[in-house]
Write a structure and sequence with these properties.
The complex is a heterodimer of chains A (257) and B (373).
Chain A lengths: L3 E6 L5 H7 L3 H9 L1 E5 L11 E7 L5 H13 E7 L1 H5 L11 H8 L23 E3 L6 H12 L11 H7 L5 H5 L15 H4 L16 H10 L4 H8 L21
Parallel strand pairs in A: 1-2, 1-3, 3-4, 4-5
Helix pairs in contact in A: 2-6
Chain B lengths: L8 E5 L2 H11 L3 E8 L2 E6 L10 E6 L2 E6 L16 H4 L3 E10 L2 E5 L8 E6 L1 H15 L6 H8 L1 E6 L10 H4 L11 E5 L3 E6 L2 H7 L5 E2 L2 H16 L10 H6 L6 H8 L5 H5 L6 E7 L5 E8 L9 E2 L2 E2 L4 H20 L9 H4 L7 H10 L5
Parallel strand pairs in B: 2-8, 8-9, 9-10
Antiparallel strand pairs in B: 1-11, 1-12, 2-3, 4-5, 6-7, 6-14, 10-11, 13-14, 15-16
The chains are: A alpha/beta (257), B alpha+beta (373).
Chain lengths: 257, 373
């Protein structure tokens, strides 16, 4: 019997699920090796029995989410979170610095019908997660690598080092050093295949913090080079704003290390 | 007719440099040289001198690199850019083994390494010294690296004596430049209207034959001699080569290691741009069907946690231990291992560090308060 795969969605834009569908050729190979039992975005909805691999997209933003993720965890032998929302709370975690009741009053005619939490949090804040794939969205090759590794019973090969390593392997000229733009590459985990720096754009941290990121030192350097501290804060307050290593970044009030 | 024998000093008018490129290309070489791309002087294929960086100067300082154009300046007024010879000999990613599943057994194949014929124009003295170090690492001892060997064989080197130094350069103190002291097929020194060319090898002399050349005059040679001297006199950074080994080894618990770890991003840029850093890792890549496994070798860095990963965790778990590992290996234990320093004073690690950590300043700080715990 092939392993049963399930894909679940929480608060998210569906982009990571689309990355799975965008695997195209590989997806056919995946479909031959695993039974895609539950994947609403693609159709299958078999809710009988356990799943061997559960991929979870999205963050927990409602009381219902918080309950449902426990059920999902109980149904999956191996639970993998995919994407920035599931691994750090996503762009919607910006609410964690704001007043959700106030947002709701601004947007909805009847905010009293809403049942929402004050925060958007990562799946790992609620249940045990076996592995995580970063990115906004996740990288197709990492997704295929993950499934391939799980099929063959080995550890997925997902680097935790900086984006800079991939930039240099591709001989991309450093945009921070040669153009003076504030790039998050040195504190961001590799895996995106350096899409932005390869097009002379700064990294804006889609893949979240690398292992042991030194955001303090980088922030001080950029600030002292004349970058507006507010711009730096906005740069970090994006898809992975609420990751543990990024959330306390405050370059306006940082002293020389 | 001028005979470009080994040791000859030839005058090559600037226009004839195109003839040299054409000659090399006609002999089957891919010609690589300096070319401006993405705000830097990169090292990529060139087919015409019009593609080369005329009048382009690189302003370098810790963590900063900018290009400016100077009216009347030459083709080689820049110093070393972000690229070196390293990726041409030790590619960032290469397949070292392919294993195919055929019915119930496995067929393992070592791919034949490519044997490119490649000529590089504009190689600097520091990078020639780096190449000599890489040769010892990859070709010395019992275990020769077949891919490196195959790529090295077809390499044709046209060096250039530096006419200026960047503030980040410190080759003088490392005894690695700026004057080229061997290791190249041809050595150019750029003057106003052309080049004084020193013929380093027979192969080098051979490609000059048929070009618009003559013997250089004594005046031209005298002028050329001054060019790298001028560059040398501009250098302000230095490392004390005689004492650095003991300075570092005797100060492994110096408080400066903690200090630099606060600034260091552990991003690995310094090791990636270093022309001698040679670390790699191998990954087994499987396909979904399980029929093909490839073993890939990729550049790795001692600044990455995984680099020192063992069954009981990382041997270098902190940035402090990683920086110390890099610096002590580069400047001290490299000497014990390979008989020379691992640093050639090119300054790339200083320029391309996003927070501008300066290797010479770190050594100086440890030296100044050596032994203080």
């Amino acid at each position: 019997m092939p392993p049963r795969l399930a894909v679940f969605k929480f608060a998210s834009c569906d982009g990571c699920q689309l990355s799975l569908l965008a695997c195209e050729d590989e997806l056919l190979a995946v479909a031959e090796k695993v039974e895609i039992a539950y994947f609403l975005e693609a159709g299958p909805r078999d809710t009988t029995g356990m799943y061997d691999i559960g991929l979870v997209e999205g963050s927990v933003t409602t009381p219902h989410d918080a309950e449902r993720i426990r059920e999902v965890r109980a149904q999956c032998k191996y639970l993998v979170t995919i994407g920035a929302c599931a691994t750090s709370g996503g762009i919607q975690a910006l609410r964690n610095w704001g007043d959700v009741d106030e947002f709701a009053r601004q947007v909805y005619a009847h905010p009293e019908y809403l049942k929402t939490l004050a925060t958007s949090t990562a799946i790992a804040d609620h249940v045990k997660v076996d592995f995580e794939l970063r990115g906004c969205p996740v990288n197709k090759h990492q997704l295929v690598e993950l499934i391939s590794a799980l099929l063959w019973g080995r550890t997925p090969r997902v680097a935790r080092y900086s984006v800079c390593v991939e930039c240099k392997r591709r001989q991309v000229v450093c945009v921070a050093v040669a153009r003076g733009v504030a790039c998050l590459g040195p504190v961001t985990q590799a895996g995106c295949e350096v899409i932005c720096p390869a097009y002379a754009r700064e990294c804006f941290g889609c893949f979240g913090p690398k292992e042991q990121p030194n955001l303090l030192s980088l922030g001080v350097r950029y600030r002292d080079d004349g970058h507006d501290p507010q711009h730096l804060t906005r740069l970090v307050r994006s898809f992975n704003a609420y990751s543990a290593e990024f959330r306390n970044f405050d370059p306006a009030n940082q002293k020389e290390s | 007719m001028t005979d470009p024998i080994v040791g000859a000093r030839i005058w090559l008018p600037e226009a004839a440099l195109q003839g040299l490129i054409d000659q090399l290309r006609a002999s089957g070489y891919e010609v690589v040289g300096p070319r401006v791309a993405d705000g830097a002087v990169t090292l990529v294929e060139v087919t015409s001198i019009s593609e080369m960086p005329r009048g382009v100067r690189d302003e370098q300082e810790p963590g900063k690199y900018r290009l400016t154009v100077i009216e009347g300046a030459g083709l080689f007024d820049h110093v070393v850019g972000p690229h070196s010879l390293k990726p041409y000999l030790f590619p960032p990613r290469t397949t070292v083994l392919e294993v195919l599943k055929i019915r119930d057994s496995w067929d393992a194949r070592v791919p034949e390494p490519p044997r490119p014929k490649r000529a590089v124009i504009g190689v600097r003295s520091c990078d020639l010294h780096a190449l000599a170090i890489q040769d010892r690492v990859f070709l010395g001892g019992q275990h020769r690296d077949p891919e490196y060997a195959a790529r090295r064989e077809g390499l044709f080197l046209i060096a250039v004596n530096c006419s200026r130094s960047a503030p980040t350069c410190f080759c003088v103190s490392m005894n690695t430049g700026p004057k080229v002291d061997g290791g190249a097929d041809l050595v150019l020194t750029e003057l106003n209207t052309g080049f004084v060319v020193e013929v380093g090898t027979e192969k080098g002399g051979e490609v000059l034959r048929g070009l618009d050349i003559r013997e250089s005059t004594l005046a031209e040679f005298a002028e050329a001699t001054e060019v790298p001297q001028r560059a040398a006199s501009q250098q302000t950074r230095r490392i004390n080569l005689a004492t650095v080994h003991d300075t570092l080894i005797n100060n492994l618990e110096h408080p400066r290691w903690e200090d630099v770890a606060k600034r260091c991003l552990s991003c690995a840029n310094c090791t990636m741009v270093c022309p001698t850093c040679f670390c790699s890792t191998v990954n087994e890549v499987t396909d979904l069907a399980g029929d093909v496994t490839t073993r890939e070798r990729v550049w790795e860095s001692c600044f990455n946690e995984e680099h020192s990963w063992t069954g009981s965790g990382a041997a270098h778990p902190t940035t402090k231990s990683r920086y110390r590992q890099w610096l002590t290996h580069k400047l001290a234990t490299w000497v014990d291992q390979f008989g020379s320093s691992g640093c050639v004073g090119c300054g790339r690690c200083i320029t391309w560090c996003p927070v501008g950590i300066d290797i010479t300043e770190e050594v100086a700080a440890i030296e100044a308060k050596g032994g203080v715990a």
